């Protein structure tokens, strides 16, 4: 890409209407199931308060610095997440080989959406089942009942889950066809406040339950004997998932930022917001678990098999269950919109195809070659494995443990060894400031070592 092309792309590209809408969009992109589904069950499995403490530290150590890495890459020439690694820098043409980082991010985005949308289908299934009586929560139920419901409605009914997943895909389509500013930004303006309202309602309800104090103690009081280097490496990896790092989301969203926007402030607010929502999600869950004697370490099924037991013991439990699963759906939607957009923006700018056609191609392709195989992996294709994992789990593993790590590592190296001084100039008006130099050297030398350590530990 020539300098003239870079200048033209910067002039033509839309920008967010305000810093607040950008932050809300990034917050929506980074919340999703990472904060509302994955974070709580990992806390339950890994010592409660010890995990929460390490997560907050990891957000400072790796999260915010990496947000800034993707910010400066995305806003540099304000194009898609593939061509962001092209053009010229410091007066020299960038090797075309760096574009493979963008393609690696695209592959990671495909893998995560392959199973992520299916989780949305599961959530819709629970909401509809509560309404139509398929899942009765008006009287106390047992773990056996919730396990049986999960088996029959998720594992044993792939056709219905396929339809619910398709419904979730169509909701995304309706918003995406209106564009980044007219669709995603406008939707997030309503969805994020709604998410906070649902979240606060659930937190207030659960922390006021009898016996909730024990759950709060488990959640906030760290058991320092559980803090190990291995756990910290694991938590650092979760931060990448929680912040949607490594698959082009922040790079793409930052490409719509104005050149005068303060990247440091937006990164700090983004990291803080993500941490706040994740921590609030814990307050929404653990007090109620301990109040009714439900084990907090039930793993990925915590939300789908353990929490319905809690709701069945609550006054107006069905109402609060619908609110909770609606919260999950809203969180999933704010994330899925932005991950889809990574692929849509790249394909549209690379092919110059009509946006609507690109959206149909992206959403339809992921549904056929990602969502349906993931759904069938809990039914007719249960025996099909990839390196010992079913298709659903394989998409999760390869995206979160390999593809995102490699892309994030490449981004840090790109900033440190390719952008060099231009990275500092993009970060702050005064590229020689102490903060800019500290961040640059930290990203150039320390962050790659951390990512390599996480990557090796996850293999």
From TrEMBL:
<keyword id="KW-0813">Transport</keyword>
<dbReference type="InterPro" id="IPR000175">
    <property type="entry name" value="Na/ntran_symport"/>
</dbReference>
<feature type="transmembrane region" description="Helical">
    <location>
        <begin position="398"/>
        <end position="418"/>
    </location>
</feature>
<dbReference type="InterPro" id="IPR047218">
    <property type="entry name" value="YocR/YhdH-like"/>
</dbReference>
<feature type="transmembrane region" description="Helical">
    <location>
        <begin position="159"/>
        <end position="176"/>
    </location>
</feature>
<feature type="transmembrane region" description="Helical">
    <location>
        <begin position="188"/>
        <end position="207"/>
    </location>
</feature>
<feature type="transmembrane region" description="Helical">
    <location>
        <begin position="319"/>
        <end position="346"/>
    </location>
</feature>
<dbReference type="InterPro" id="IPR037272">
    <property type="entry name" value="SNS_sf"/>
</dbReference>
<feature type="transmembrane region" description="Helical">
    <location>
        <begin position="20"/>
        <end position="37"/>
    </location>
</feature>
<keyword id="KW-0472">Membrane</keyword>
<keyword id="KW-0812">Transmembrane</keyword>
<protein>
    <recommendedName>
        <fullName>Transporter</fullName>
    </recommendedName>
</protein>
<dbReference type="GO" id="GO:0016020">
    <property type="term" value="C:membrane"/>
</dbReference>
<keyword id="KW-0769">Symport</keyword>
<dbReference type="GO" id="GO:0015293">
    <property type="term" value="F:symporter activity"/>
</dbReference>
<keyword id="KW-1133">Transmembrane helix</keyword>
<feature type="transmembrane region" description="Helical">
    <location>
        <begin position="227"/>
        <end position="251"/>
    </location>
</feature>
<comment type="similarity">
    <text>Belongs to the sodium:neurotransmitter symporter (SNF) (TC 2.A.22) family.</text>
</comment>
<feature type="transmembrane region" description="Helical">
    <location>
        <begin position="49"/>
        <end position="69"/>
    </location>
</feature>
<dbReference type="Pfam" id="PF00209">
    <property type="entry name" value="SNF"/>
</dbReference>
<feature type="transmembrane region" description="Helical">
    <location>
        <begin position="263"/>
        <end position="286"/>
    </location>
</feature>
<feature type="transmembrane region" description="Helical">
    <location>
        <begin position="439"/>
        <end position="457"/>
    </location>
</feature>
<feature type="transmembrane region" description="Helical">
    <location>
        <begin position="358"/>
        <end position="378"/>
    </location>
</feature>
<feature type="transmembrane region" description="Helical">
    <location>
        <begin position="100"/>
        <end position="128"/>
    </location>
</feature>
